[in-house]
Amino acid sequence: MLPKAEIHCHIEGAAAPELVLRQAQKYGVDMSAFIRDGSFVWSDFTSFLAAYDAAAGLFRTQEDYALLAETYLTSLAADGAVYSEFFTSPDHASRAGLSPLAYTDGLGEGILRAKAKTGIEARMIVTGVRHFGVGSVEAAARFAVECGHPLVTGFGMAGEERSGHPRDFARAFDIAREAGLGITVHAGELAGWESVAAAMDHLRPTRIGHGVRAIENADLVARIADEGVVLEICPVSNIELKVFASFAAHPFAKLRDAGCRVTLNSDDPPYFWTTLKREYEVAAEHFGLDRPALLEVTRTAIAAAFVDEETRAALLSRLAPGES
Ligand code: ADE
Ligand code: ZN
User: Fold this and answer.
1) Which ligand 1 atom is at minimum distance from the Cα of 13?
2) Total structural domains in the chain?
3) Which bound ligand lies closest to the C-alpha atom of 15?
4) d(Cα 266, Cα 215) in Å, to the nearest integer?
5) What is the dihedral of CA 276, 15, 113, 315, to 10 degrees?
6) CB atoms inside a 10 Å sphere around CB 10
7) Is residue 324 in some structural domain?
8) Are 271 and 1 in contact (CB under 8 A)?
9) What does the alpha-carbon distance between residue 43 and residue 41 come to, in Å, rounded to a whole number?
10) Which domain holds residue 92?
11) Would you say the CB of residue 91 lies under 6 angstroms from ligand 1?
12) Would residue 106 count as lying in a domain?
């Protein structure tokens, strides 16, 4: 099986409907508005977030989160992944009544369990939620820096991209960067190329979540390629959220051909009826990537991963012999 790596997945968005329904039963919550026939139900970004927030609200204890991370990472490893970096959201934990520290410890425990079973390596990126405002994103950055968890190695921002301007969030990103955390930010998904340029100017990320709408400006595409900023591309998510009308209209191949460093990711897999394996299959089928090109995508993800150099070298050595 082709070795894979994922660097853009929201842990709350990785909870499969079966697991969410088990949690709903545990807490006596009716989820019929959000899950029907074993599938999440939503129609646009707003209703997607509503389903996502309702499901996230069913993970309430440290053990619930350990189970979530263990379950997701075990399935990812079965699909050939050797590495996973997932986004955490202390705000979602607080809303579910759990302290961010207990939440992070639970997820860390799940990582260790999955690693013991499958060998998969994983790290956490603490995110602020953009539409919760500057204060909450700065608090998330301070938490990321102060929590001291060895598997928290990055900081990022997700949520409604059309809310606020990147310059408003510069201080949060400065706090995280100055403490040595890796930096990524969602941009160029729900908003256009200007959003990507502003995120690069004000937040100085080494990676951008999505970034695909950079394709609207050739100079910006050249800048991304020149600066070596890595794009965390989530093709199926982009189609399901109607960022692009079809895989034929998706800019993955154009960005790659222009010299941008690209990776493949599942974002919120069960919400978009995808898996990391499917993302690689889509890239083969629709973007023309052969096996060496797909392996290069995995290598790019590991090169851009927020890990120490010893771990990076160990991960690279796990790519197929003769191909790494
Ligand atoms: N949070 C979870 N999934 C997201 C997405 N695709 N865009 C922005 N924020 C998110
Ligand atoms: Zn995302």
Assistant:
1) 2
2) 1
3) 1
4) 20
5) 20
6) 23
7) no
8) no
9) 7
10) 4-307
11) no
12) yes
Please work out whether the CB of residue 210 comes within 6 Å of at least one atom of ligand 1. Answer: no
| 189 part of the active site | yes
Residue 241's contacts (CB-CB under 8 Å, 6 or more residues apart) are 45, 48, 189, 190, 272
The amino acid at residue 12 is: E
Under a CB-based contact definition with an 8 Å cutoff, are residues 52 and 12 in contact? yes
Q: Is the shortest distance between the CB of 158 and ligand 1 below 6 Å?
A: yes
Give me the helix-helix angle, 62-78 and 17-27, nearest 10°.
160
Residue 203 in contact with residue 173, Cβ under 8 Å? yes
Taking only the tens of pLDDT, the chain with its 324 residues reads 999 999 999 999 999 999 999 999 999 999 999 999 999 999 999 999 999 999 999 999 999 999 999 999 999 999 999 999 999 999 999 999 999 999 999 999 999 999 999 999 999 999 999 999 999 999 999 999 999 999 999 999 999 999 999 999 999 999 999 999 999 999 999 999 999 999 999 999 999 999 999 999 999 999 999 999 999 999 999 999 999 999 999 999 999 999 999 999 999 999 999 999 999 999 999 999 999 999 999 999 999 999 999 999 999 999 966 544
- Ligand 1: residue whose CA is nearest its atom 9: 159
Q: Is the dihedral of CA 31, 34, 37, 38 positive or negative?
A: negative
| Residue 182 covered by a domain | yes
pTM: 0.98
CATH number of residue 168's parent domain: 3.20.20.140
Dihedral sign computed on CA atoms, order 143, 149, 150, 154: negative
> Beta strand 152-158 with 182-187: parallel, antiparallel or unpaired?
parallel
Q: Which DSSP string do the residues of 37-93 spell out, in sequence order?
A: TTEE--SSHHHHHHHHHHHHTT--SHHHHHHHHHHHHHHHHHTTEEEEEEEE-HHHH
Q: Considering the candidates 6, 121, 189, 232, report the single residue annotated as catalytic.
A: 189
Within a domain: 318: no
Crossing angle (nearest 10°) for helices 218-227 and 193-203:
30
